[in-house]
Amino acid sequence: QDEPIEDGTCLQVSGWGKTEDEDYGSEDLRLINIPVVNWEKCRKRFRKIHYLTKQMICAGSEHISACHGDSGGPLVDGRKLVGVASWAYPYVCVGYPVVFAKVSSVRSWIKFVSDV
């Protein structure tokens, strides 16, 4: 069942992506907590560079976010996989949210393909 996640809810994202002071990504797997961003606000923020669909969820803040190199990484709420890092504003790691593919939108396809 797809239960909506409230705006501002902090979720966890992990990856080896870039950090503020590293140009090529981290050698260590990192974990951060980032807030869910209102979908409509996120859509407006990206409207000039990419189309946002309801199969996407945005998370991040002005000060902390996933970054380049984190694509494909998980966005989790406790033990539940909520999203998979998909794309972000080009060449910017903070100040814009990151867009994640919403797992609940493709759950039936995952079950069909994986036979789980």
From TrEMBL:
GO CC terms of this entry: extracellular region
InterPro entries in UniProt: Peptidase_S1, Peptidase_S1_PA, Peptidase_S1_PA_chymotrypsin, Trypsin_dom, TRYPSIN_SER
Domain of life: Eukaryota
GO biological process: digestion; proteolysis
Keywords associated with the record: Digestion, Disulfide bond, Hydrolase, Protease, Secreted, Serine protease, Signal, Zymogen
Listed PROSITE patterns: TRYPSIN_DOM, TRYPSIN_SER
One GO MF term: serine-type endopeptidase activity
Domain Peptidase S1 as annotated: residue spans: 1-115
Cellular location(s): Secreted, Extracellular space
Family statement: Belongs to the peptidase S1 family. CLIP subfamily.
Protein name: Trypsin 5G1
Organism listed in the record: Culex pipiens
